[in-house]
Amino acid sequence: MGIDIIDQEGYRAYAAAGGTAGFKPRFLVRGGRQELLEGIGRQRTVLLAFDDVPTALACYESDEYQKAVLLREGAAEVDLIIAPGYSGPQPA
């Protein structure tokens, strides 16, 4: 998820709501320093890993997460993508 925070207090309320907690994702990236080398980026990056795509979709569609999304409205602009992981052969 790429995030541009507009209202820090509103974004804190969204983050504190814990809308993903029941789905037990692992945070792989949660803010911190980043270097944009190409393209268009956002101020902050958050990357979560779920067990599978159906779990990620269920989390996004859950009442808990949608309540958190309402707290985020007007506080941040977000690009949110759900994609499957890859565990196949790695290129040389």
Question: Your description of this structure?
Answer:
The chain has 92 residues and is an alpha+beta fold. The protein has a single domain, classed as 2-Layer Sandwich (Alpha-Beta Plaits). The protein has helices at 8-16, 53-61, 63-72; strands at residues 2-5, 26-30, 44-49, 76-79. The chain has a four-stranded antiparallel beta sheet with strand order 2-3-1-4, with helices on one face. Helix 1 (8-16) runs antiparallel to helix 3. It starts with a strand and ends in a 13-residue tail after the last strand.
Q: What attributes characterize this protein structure?
A:
single chain; alpha+beta; Alpha-Beta Plaits; 3 helices; 30% helix
Compact summary:
The protein has three helices and four strands; from the N terminus they run βαββααβ. It is α+β, with helices and mostly antiparallel strands and 92 residues long. The chain has a single domain, classed as Alpha-Beta Plaits (2-Layer Sandwich), CATH 3.30.70.100.
- Physical arrangement of strands within the biggest beta sheet: 2-3-1-4
Q: Strand-and-helix sequence, N→C? A: EHEEHHE
How far apart the termini lie comes to 28 Å
Q: From the helix content, strand content and strand pairing, which structural class follows?
A: alpha+beta
Q: How much strand?
A: 15-25%
Helix content: 25-40%
Poorly predicted tracts of residues: none
CATH class: Alpha Beta
Question: How many structurally independent domains?
Answer: 1
Topology of helices and strands:
Layout: E1 2-5, H1 8-16, E2 26-30, E3 44-49, H2 53-61, H3 63-72, E4 76-79
Antiparallel strand pairs: 1-3, 1-4, 2-3
Helix pairs in contact: 1-3
